[in-house]
Amino acid sequence: MNDRAIAGEFVTETFDYDGGRQVTVYVPPDPPEAVVFAGDGQRISQWGRFLEAADVPPTMIVGGHGLTNENLRLQEYSPVFDAERFAAHEKFFVEDVRQWTESRFGVALPTERTAVFGASAGGELALALGLRHPDVYGAIFCASPGAGYKPTEVMPSRIPRTYLVAGTQEPFFLEKATRWAAALRDAGADVVMKERTGSHGGVFWRKEFPLMVAWAFGRE
């Protein structure tokens, strides 16, 4: 699969945010019927090749690049470490990047055709943004979330559909994903929780990604 030609294209733009932050977009060969906004976009955007090989509707991936400094990355991706830095990144991701996507690519998809995705700390970002902006993201895709951002006693009244996955060889992260799945179900959300063979950062994340897209946006 890694050697097959890519029919879509990749577009990278540098924004003024935080002294210059890049966003890489995978543009499918056919007009997009869905869009996934993702953290750590320098890696996740490349997964467009796996969508092309899967039986899913044409899906655009809009990936905001993550920081290599792990402490600063956590502060941007989880609301519990540095509220001010998280809020600044939240505005950039939810407002600036989304508005640019609509303008640059002529994409104005409804909430039910829009998802937010992340893995590890990025999984916390996906959960936080999805729960805080259910009017923007109709689905949350979360792989192996960390332990910074936890379910609250009182959950939002409106929760996007949520697909969680974690690996059998990463028990710490599997427990966190399972806890999130239970809390969201208790709040009445539509939740899928998958346990896969794999370790943290393993290939099962990218293998699961097309399944997430098919679950949220598959043709009727």
Task: Please sum up the structure shown.
InterPro entries: AB_hydrolase_fold, Esterase-like, Mycobacterial_A85_antigen. By secondary structure, the protein is α/β, with parallel strands linked by helices. It is built from 7 helices and 8 strands.
Descriptive report:
The protein has 220 residues and is α/β, with parallel strands linked by helices. It has one domain (9-217): Alpha/Beta hydrolase fold, catalytic domain (Rossmann fold), CATH 3.40.50.1820. Helices cover 37% and strands 22% of the residues. The chain is built from seven helices and eight strands, in the order βββααβααβαββαβα. It has helices at 41-44, 48-52, 70-77, 83-105, 121-132, 171-186, 204-217, and strands at residues 9-15, 21-27, 34-38, 59-64, 114-119, 139-143, 161-167, 191-196. It has an eight-stranded mixed β-sheet, sandwiched between helices. Helix 3 (70-77) runs parallel beside helix 5 (121-132).
Show the helix and strand layout:
Elements: E1 9-15, E2 21-27, E3 34-38, H1 41-44, H2 48-52, E4 59-64, H3 70-77, H4 83-105, E5 114-119, H5 121-132, E6 139-143, E7 161-167, H6 171-186, E8 191-196, H7 204-217
Parallel strand pairs: 3-4, 3-5, 5-6, 6-7, 7-8
Antiparallel strand pairs: 1-2, 2-4
Helix pairs in contact: 3-5
Count of spatially separate domains: 1
Strand order of the largest sheet: 1-2-4-3-5-6-7-8
Strand proportion, as a percent range, falls in 15-25%
- CATH overall fold name: Rossmann fold
Could you tell me how far the N terminus lies from the C terminus, measured between alpha carbons in angstroms?
Answer: 26 Å
Mind telling me which CATH architecture this is? 3-Layer(aba) Sandwich
- Provide the helix percentage: 25-40%
Overall spatial form: globular
Averaging pLDDT over every residue, what do you get?
A: 94
Radius of gyration: 16 Å
Q: How many E strands? A: 8
CATH superfamily: Alpha/Beta hydrolase fold, catalytic domain
Low-confidence stretches: none
Class computed from helices, strands and strand pairing: alpha/beta
InterPro entries: AB_hydrolase_fold, Esterase-like, Mycobacterial_A85_antigen
Organism: Ktedonobacter racemifer DSM 44963
Protein name: Putative esterase
Pfam families: Esterase
